[in-house]
Structures are given as structure tokens and as C-alpha cells.
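quick q for whoever's on today - can somebody do inverse folding on this one?? i tried earlier but teh output was garbage lol. C-alpha cells:
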């Protein structure tokens, strides 16, 4: 069994991006990410901090817009418009969740697809499903990079994803399909889940339930990717996979922390650099 070291791989990706950023700066392009946060969700604050740290490390300009809980849709949309029109801003990221009275889909639709570094605008979602060049949402993109780096065959493999969210499960389904995997996607209404997951050559857990995937759900020799980030009462972070027992059976497995999480941030940086490289 080999542990897929997302932390190390993310570091290598950031090192390569540093070189690209130096080249961009020589052409007077200073990549910039704008992050919008509405309200004060604690988990979001941690994610946003990680993104700002990565920007600082790479020399990407970073600006944060903290809107209060009572912000109106008009105010949010006019901020997005302002950032869409700002030639110095390459990437716009709206951190979810946002308060319930706001329509997150409308906000994602408003972000210029060319600055949509999270890949949530329907234009990018559509292009991904058509297998066209686009911004791919960062977590699935990071998973694909991990599989590539560890030479894990995707073409012809049976990939089973547990979870069908718009930010992980669905775009990952498209990414794997584009790479010629046979993909099954499971969710809370799936019958006989264990029978399905046991068929997976590549099993991806994106559920949000601590240690949900147990040894009996995994085929001998499978690759297991754990997307889950579950904060326990004692402050410990646990994935969606019961690492100790599943790692006995898997041929490759990602740890939590140190697996998918750092890759997500690295791929965000990669998308910002891609956006900056195609400035008009
Ligand atoms: P969502 O809550 O949006 O989706 C969870 C999915 O799991 C849903 O499709 C749901 O099914 C499914 N599900 C829930 N219970 C079961 C069950 N008993 N059996 C089968 N399927 C089930 O979560 P996200 O996709 O946003 O996130 C998933 C996890 O990944 C979370 O822990 C999150 O923190 C983490 N995450 C980590 C990232 C990283 O960078 N490492 C990035 C994004 C998320 P249904 O649709 O039927 O309700």
C-alpha cells in the first residue's frame, strides 16, 4: 500500500507555478485573486486563510472582501460586477456557504467565466461536460492530478464516487469520464451501497460523514481517495474513510489531512495563473 502524499505533490505544483508567475511578472502581469466572503462561517474562514497563505507564498496578489450577514443580493452582484470589470483581477472566488437569503447560483452565474477560478459558473460546468477547455473545479482537478502523478490508470477503470455535490461529485464524474473511466456515482438514495463500492478500482468518498467508508466496502487493491473534512469535537480532523482498516486493503490511499485538501488549494492557484496567462 502506498500513501498518496497530497501535501508533497501540492508543494511541487506550487514550486512550478512560482516559475510561471515570475515569467508573467516580467510581462507586467501581476496575477491577482479576489475572494468574497459573506457572513462569518468559521470553517470558511479557515479555508480562506489557507488560500491567502498560498497566494502570499507564490507572489499572487490577494484581496479579500468581507461582506456582512445582512448584505443584499444587489450589493453582492454589484461587487462581482466591479471585480469582473477590474483589469487587475484575474480570479474571483465566492466562498460558500453564503447566508440563505442570497441566491448563490445567481452569484456564480454573474462571475465572468474567464475569472471563474472555482469553475462554478454554468459556462465552465457546461464546457467540462463537453470536454472543452475550461476552469475545472479545484477539488476534482486536484484528484485527477494525484491519479496522474501516481500513474494510477484511469482509462477503462471503474471509478465509484460517493457524493453528488456540485462542487465535488458531479464535476469529478465529468473529469473521470473525460479520461475514459467507467463512472458510477452514489448518493444517499443508492441501494446496496456496499455492493457498488466493492466494484470500484478507484473509490472516491465525498460524503461529509466521519469514517463512513469501512474495509468491507472496498475491493482488495483499490485506490481510495478521501475528500472528507470532518471536524470532531476534540478539534481533530477526520476523513470520510476509516483510514486504519481501509489502508490494509487499498493499493493507494489519501490521508486526511495531507491528501485532497492541499491539492485543492494548489489547483486554485493553478487556475489563477491560467486566468492571468490569458489576460486580454
Ligand atoms: P455535500 O453535503 O454537498 O454532499 C454530500 C453527498 O454525500 C451528497 O450527495 C449526499 O447524498 C451523499 N451522502 C450523504 N449521506 C450518504 C449516505 N449515507 N450514503 C451515500 N451517500 C451519502 O458535501 P460536499 O460534496 O460539499 O463535501 C463532502 C465532504 O468533502 C465534506 O466533508 C467536505 O468538508 C469535504 N470537502 C473537502 C474539500 C477538500 O478540499 N478536501 C473540498 C470540498 C469538500 P444526497 O445528494 O442524496 O443528499
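ok took a stab at it. sequence:
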Amino acid at each position: 500500500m502506498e500513501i498518496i502524499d497530497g501535501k508533497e505533490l501540492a508543494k511541487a505544483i506550487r514550486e512550478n507555478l512560482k516559475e510561471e508567475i515570475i515569467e508573467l511578472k516580467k510581462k507586467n502581469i501581476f496575477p491577482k485573486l479576489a475572494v468574497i466572503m459573506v457572513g462569518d462561517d468559521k470553517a470558511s474562514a479557515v479555508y480562506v486563510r489557507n488560500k491567502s497563505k498560498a497566494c502570499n507564498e507564490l507572489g499572487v496578489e490577494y484581496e479579500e472582501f468581507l461582506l456582512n450577514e445582512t448584505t443584499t443580493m444587489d450589493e453582492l452582484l454589484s461587487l462581482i460586477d466591479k471585480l469582473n470589470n477590474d483589469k487587475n483581477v484575474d480570479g474571483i472566488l465566492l466562498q460558500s456557504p453564503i447566508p440563505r437569503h442570497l441566491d448563490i447560483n445567481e452569484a456564480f452565474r454573474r462571475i465572468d467565466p474567464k475569472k471563474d477560478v472555482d469553475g462554478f459558473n454554468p459556462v465552465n460546468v457546461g464546457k467540462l461536460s463537453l470536454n472543452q477547455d475550461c476552469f475545472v473545479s479545484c477539488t476534482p482537478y486536484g484528484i485527477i492530478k494525484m491519479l496522474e502523478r501516481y500513474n494510477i490508470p484511469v482509462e477503462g477503470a471503474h471509478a465509484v464516487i460517493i457524493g453528488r455535490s456540485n462542487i465535488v461529485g458531479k464535476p469529478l464524474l465529468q473529469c473521470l469520464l473525460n479520461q475514459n473511466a467507467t463512472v458510477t456515482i452514489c448518493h444517499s438514495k443508492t441501494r446496496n451501497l456496499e455492493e457498488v463500492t466493492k466494484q470500484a478500482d478507484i473509490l472516491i468518498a465525498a460524503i461529509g460523514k466521519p469514517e463512513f467508508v469501512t474495509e468491507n466496502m472496498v475491493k482488495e487493491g483499490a485506490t481510495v481517495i478521501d475528500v472528507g473534512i470532518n471536524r470532531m469535537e476534540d478539534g481533530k480532523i477526520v476523513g470520510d474513510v476509516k483510514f486504519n482498516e481501509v489502508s490494509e486493503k487499498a493499493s493507494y490511499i489519501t490521508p486526511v489531512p495531507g491528501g485532497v485538501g492541499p491539492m485543492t488549494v494548489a489547483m486554485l492557484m493553478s487556475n489563477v495563473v491560467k486566468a492571468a496567462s490569458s489576460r486580454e
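fwiw The domain at 26-112 is CATH 3.40.50.10860 (Rossmann fold). also The pocket of NDP is lined by residues 139, 162-165, 167-169, 186-190, 193, 206-209, 227-230, 260-261, 264 (CB under 6 Å). so keep that in mind when u check it
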